[in-house]
TrEMBL record:
It comes from the Bacteria. Transmembrane segments: none annotated. SUPFAM superfamilies: Thioredoxin-like (SSF52833). It comes from Streptomyces boluensis. One of its GO terms (molecular function) is arsenate reductase (glutaredoxin) activity. Keywords: Oxidoreductase. Belongs to the ArsC family. This is Arsenate reductase family protein. The keyword Oxidoreductase applies.
């Protein structure tokens, strides 16, 4: 199991605390320092069953600079998928956190205790 975190994020710290309480065996990836490649982002999206715009933090300053909320400039459709993934790789702060990749090949955006427990049960 791997968890992508930003140590400054309270949701990430909470997820780590719960994983530790449960005695989980996991690896931490500080994704702002160890930035995932476009291929790694694609793989995580496949595991999540989500699209890149589903895990994009649109309130971040980078998102505002890129104008990601403009659906004409950034359509949420298959043809724009690679562009979104490239933006996430170029601006990792935009990636929703924490993300846990479970041992069964799935993943969850672990923003709640329930989501963390769900990943532990997989």
């Amino acid at each position: 199991m791997e968890i992508w975190i930003n140590p400054a994020c309270s949701k990430c710290r909470s997820a780590l605390h719960l994983l530790d309480e449960e005695g989980a065996d996991y690896t931490v990836r500080r994704y702002l320092d160890d930035v995932p490649s476009e291929d790694e982002i694609r793989a995580v999206l496949d595991r999540l069953g989500l699209e890149p715009w589903d895990i994009t933090r649109t309130q971040e300053a980078d998102a505002k600079e890129l104008n990601l909320k403009d659906r004409e400039a950034w359509p949420r459709e298959a043809a724009a998928r690679d562009r979104w993934i490239a933006a996430l790789a170029a601006h990792p702060k935009l990636i929703q956190r924490p993300i846990i990749t479970a041992d069964d090949g799935t993943a969850v955006v672990a923003r709640t205790d329930e989501a963390v427990r769900d990943a532990l049960g997989r």
